[in-house]
Amino acid sequence: MITTVRKHLVDFCGERISVEIDKDGSKYTKFALLSEPCPQECAPPQLFTRENLIVLDSVHSGTGRTSGNDITVNVIEPVLRRLHARYQVVKSQNSKSVAEFGNQLDPTQSYTILFVSGDTSVSEFFNGVGAGVPSPRSSLTILPIAMGTGNALANSLNLNCPVEAFASFLRGELVTAEFPLYRAILPDGETSVVFFIVLSLGFHANLLHAAENEKYKSMGVERFQEASGDILQNYKLQEQITLDKQGVAGSYAYFALVNVPNLEASYIPSPQSDPFKHELHLLAYSSSLNRKQLLERIMAGYKNRRGDELTADPYTTYKRISEGFEIKLQNKQEGPNDPAFELCLDGQLYNLLQYKSDQHQEELTIQVELIDSALGSFDILVMGKH
Ligand SMILES: Nc1ncnc2c1ncn2[C@@H]1O[C@H](COP(=O)(O)OP(=O)(O)OP(=O)(O)O)[C@@H](O)[C@H]1O
Questions:
Q1: Which residues, in sequence order, are CB contacts of 104 under 8 Å at separation 6+?
Q2: Is the pLDDT of residue 272 over 80?
């Protein structure tokens, strides 16, 4: 069923500009600009300026763009033009475009980038930003405009609605803060991945891998519900994990290190997480739980509110971590693509069996580092609402 809402965007030169939004379930189907005379006297027109303002549209995010739901073409560009802003639009051409764009930035410049995308694109971008000497004057400021599937980052920054995020940006209502970043070094000792949402093994990683299957691709966020039934019925969910420094050791069905409270708009598995703080929360559920008990705990994330404490429970580990550490994985391999070795880093998917330093290695180690809010030559900043 399609629902329609109208959101006010900005007043300008005697005009009140709004957007009519149509949504079908979790999918946006239309963004249309509306203009009417301003009810009160409007503020005088101001030149909207930001250094190197770029709209980066990852056009395959969410369920992809149509002429109706192309927010860049239908809303962002016409409004920036009317505000006489200087900006550039970059539309992704292929699956490497976003990372390549990150790699081509001029290290002597600062940028503000509106990410019309989901989380994976932001992750690809950060991992694409080249090495370089930190420059005191170069910053990258990121604003997520939630057009992906889960949109964990945008939801955690209280930017659930793409039109409201753009409106708040135009009206100068957002806070800009240093962006906490983390690095995972895989067992081969060479592959290093920057992340800022979640590192997961077990159920969550398996779910993200399964949801990539072609049969689920055309669905929005609903595809995760479909795929989770398959995993709960058919997967072993016994991750043998030790974190020496944290005194954590056991067999876990679900194991996630999270920086953000929301993994989706209404799903808050880690309510104590704060995307502006440089700390991770370990959330893990024991393999001793039966599937019904496990599902109850996973689904409890839909009832949590930001700031809640999780109910103490011998089968749940919930711990704040604010220093680097090692994850040791001691699973016995069963088959060539054993899902017990599946890892998810902000929606990017790996099977650790392909990242061993030698084929006989039995214990696989992932090193996790908290890195400063800097990548290559840039200070990394994020815009959001507290
Ligand atoms: N033209 C294109 N052709 C092929 N792949 C593309 C193209 N444009 C973007 N992509 C890829 O599509 C993916 C979009 O991921 P993104 O995270 O933005 O959305 P999502 O997966 O729907 O959302 P979320 O990660 O929030 O669940 C990225 O991997 C990106 O590189």
A1: none
A2: yes
- The ligand 1 atom at the shortest distance from the C-alpha of residue 96 is 31
Instruction: State both tokens at 324.
Output: 């680097």
Tokens 């764009």 found at:
101
pLDDT at 187 over 80: yes
The predicted pLDDT at position 340 comes to 97
Which atom from ligand 1 is nearest to the alpha carbon of 117?
Answer: 18
195: DSSP letter: E
SS3 344: strand
Asked if residue 262 has its Cβ within 6 Å of ligand 1, the reply is: no
Tokens 């690095």 correspond to 183
Q: What is the largest CA-CA distance in the chain?
A: 73
C-beta of 144 in contact with ligand 1 (< 6 A)? no
- On the 0-12 / 13-18 / 19+ scale of CB atoms within 10 A, 290 is exposed
The whole-model pTM stands at 0.92
Task: Convert the pLDDT of each residue in 305-355 to its tens digit.
Answer: 999 998 889 999 999 999 999 999 999 999 889 999 999 999 899 999 999
Task: Tell me which H or E stretch contains 16.
Answer: strand 15-24
**Separation of CA 141 and ligand 1 centre (Å):** 20
Taken as a whole, the chain contains a residue count of: 386
CA–CA distance, 221 with 151 (Å, rounded to integer) = 10
What's the complex ipTM? 0.97
- Domains of the chain, each with CATH number or no CATH: 2-173 (3.40.50.10330), 182-371 (2.60.200.40)
> Is 384 close to ligand 1, i.e. is its CB under 6 Å away?
no
- Report whether residue 93 contacts ligand 1, using a CB cutoff of 6 Å: yes
Measured from the CB, is residue 59 less than 6 Å from ligand 1? yes
The three-class DSSP label of residue 314 is: coil
**Tokens for 155?**
């939801």
